[in-house]
Amino acid sequence: MSGSVRAAGRPDPQPREPSSSPRPRWGLVLAGAAGGAALALYVAAAPFVAPALRRVCLPFVPASPAQVDNVLRLLAGRRGALVDIGSGDGRIVIEAAKRGFRAVGYELNPWLAWYSRYRAWRVGVHHSTTFYICDLWKVNFSEFNNVVIFGVPQMMPQLEEKLQQELKGSARVIACRFPFPSWTASHESGKGIDTAWSYDSKSFKITGNESLNKTTERTGPV
Ligand SMILES: C[S@@+](CC[C@H](N)C(=O)[O-])C[C@H]1O[C@@H](n2cnc3c(N)ncnc32)[C@H](O)[C@@H]1O
Ligand SMILES: *[C@@H]1O[C@H](CO)[C@@H](O)[C@H](O)[C@H]1NC(C)=O
Ligand SMILES: *[C@@H]1O[C@H](CO)[C@@H](O)[C@H](O)[C@H]1NC(C)=O
Ligand SMILES: CC(=O)N[C@H]1CO[C@H](CO)[C@@H](O)[C@@H]1O
């Protein structure tokens, strides 16, 4: 069951959401068909994007409906700007926009970005969504207080460092399927490959003070 948010390490301060959102059946059908079409587009575009992906290969694997659900559960009660890093066909950005976020996707594959813009227009959230065709490693994410990543394990240590430098103290980061290696999650939602973890930036931001204190603790007072 993916219907609950579990506290990881400390009690859950948020009320639980109802376990099912009233989404019409055709929405899922459309999402499935769209995923297939976008995958075909990705295969067609693969030779053009390959050089930029040399650093870490992050393929287009769309989030499952349960995964999208788990991500949004962990963002319940949040507002403001949201980014999906490697937004694929835009499904997370679009769902977030429907819940009132100003939602942005960064996607290296231009076909997927254009397809996302089309989907956002189709469902009427084009005013609150933006899709950039851009390499995620070249973006400064400091303006976002909600960050979503469905990555691959090889990129997570590097991304952890990048976000730690850029994000503000109020930010929340959600990782899908693969957690961050050294941060401690505050909550998790879902099971197995659909699991999502949330991290609050207060728990991972390194301020000058904390590092000073850590050094002192390690050395120990004389
Ligand atoms: C695992 S998919 C996740 C898609 C979407 N977030 C979702 O959950 O459905 C990762 C996406 O990141 C994109 N990507 C890969 N490398 C990237 C890069 N360097 N910059 C931006 N996007 C990238 C891929 O094209 C792919 O669409
Ligand atoms: C990101 O942008 C913010 C605001 O413009 C800036 O203060 C910060 O230094 C930038 N961070 C990096 C790592 O470039
Ligand atoms: C660091 O140490 C100072 C002085 O001992 C203390 O007031 C402060 O709360 C500590 N900060 C953290 C983040 O532990
Ligand atoms: C222990 C320590 O270094 N405290 C400093 C934390 O940072 C503030 C300003 O950001 C300083 O005023 C403290 O002296």
TrEMBL record:
Q: Where is it located?
A: Mitochondrion membrane
InterPro entries with a match to the protein in the record: FAM173A/B (IPR026170), SAM-dependent_MTases_sf (IPR029063)
Q: Could you tell me the Gene Ontology terms of the biological process aspect for this record?
A: methylation; positive regulation of sensory perception of pain; regulation of mitochondrial ATP synthesis coupled proton transport
Q: What keywords sit in the KW lines?
A: Membrane, Methyltransferase, Mitochondrion, S-adenosyl-L-methionine, Transferase, Transmembrane, Transmembrane helix
Transmembrane region positions?
26-50
How does this protein sit in the membrane? Single-pass membrane protein
Write down the SUPFAM superfamilies for this protein, in alphabetical order. Answer: S-adenosyl-L-methionine-dependent methyltransferases (SSF53335)
Transmembrane helix recorded as keyword: yes
Task: Extract the ranges annotated as region (Disordered).
Answer: 1-24
Origin: domain of life: Eukaryota
- One term of GO molecular function: protein-lysine N-methyltransferase activity
- Please give the GO cellular component terms listed in this UniProt entry: mitochondrial membrane
> Is Cell division given among the entry's keywords?
no
The entry sums up its family as follows: Belongs to the ANT/ATPSC lysine N-methyltransferase family.
Q: Which PANTHER family match?
A: ATP SYNTHASE SUBUNIT C LYSINE N-METHYLTRANSFERASE, METHYLTRANSFERASE DOMAIN-CONTAINING PROTEIN
- Recorded protein name is ATP synthase subunit C lysine N-methyltransferase
- Organism expressing this protein natively: Callorhinchus milii
